[in-house]
Amino acid sequence: MKDRKPEIKPSEEFQRTVAQCRPEDFDGHTDFYRLAPEQRLEWFEQDDDVPFMKQVFQIRPEKRALIPAVTHVDGSGRLQTVHRETNLRYYRLIEHFRDLAGIPIVLNTSFNENEPVVCRPEEALDCFLRTKMDMLVMENFLARRQ
């Protein structure tokens, strides 16, 4: 993904991406997946609940190669936790990605390309059509490049 991001959404080096995850993948409290206490800090050197992309933590050196698209040049990563109660659909997406890839983290970046952030479905479709995104998902709608 790190190699594909510039072709999908060119940006300056200082424009950071965000690692989004389910908080229980880091603190061991969930019905679906439990991390042993010794794995609590498996991905980041610090553990905290961060619902608004406001904190940056060091990513463990041995994990950086597994998540290069969200690892900044200094080895840090901006973290956002996604809770089941606030966004069940996205929470489940992260959960399924973890089950498929073994990595409980997905990349997030603002949805725009040289314009204000996308807010309406028409803007999302327009951005999708003029960039190299593979697919666009909005609620129950899926657009995929052929």
Topology:
Elements: H1 5-8, E1 18-21, H2 24-27, E2 55-58, E3 76-81, H3 88-101, E4 105-108, H4 121-130, E5 135-138, E6 141-144
Parallel strand pairs: 1-3
Antiparallel strand pairs: 1-4, 2-3, 5-6
Structure description:
The chain is of the alpha+beta class. The protein folds into 2 domains: 13-109, Alpha-Beta Complex (DHBP synthase), CATH 3.90.870.20; 111-146, no CATH class. Helices cover 22% and strands 18% of the residues. It has helices at 5-8, 24-27, 88-101, 121-130, and strands at residues 18-21, 55-58, 76-81, 105-108, 135-138, 141-144. The strands form 2 sheets. Strands 2-3-1-4 form a 4-stranded mixed sheet, covered by helices on one side. A two-stranded antiparallel ribbon has the order 5-6. It is globular, with a radius of gyration of 16 Å.
Which stretches of 5+ consecutive residues score pLDDT under 50? 27-39
Q: What's the number of extended β-strand segments?
A: 6
Oligomer: single chain
Please report which band the strand proportion falls in: under 5%, 5-15%, 15-25%, 25-35%, 35-45% or over 45%.
15-25%
Strand neighbour order, sheet with most strands:
2-3-1-4
Mean pLDDT: 76
Give a summary of the structure in a few sentences.
The protein has helices spanning 5-8, 24-27, 88-101, 121-130; strands at residues 18-21, 55-58, 76-81, 105-108, 135-138, 141-144. By secondary structure, the protein is of the alpha+beta class. A four-stranded mixed β-sheet has the order 2-3-1-4, with helices on one face. Strands 5-6 form a two-stranded antiparallel ribbon.
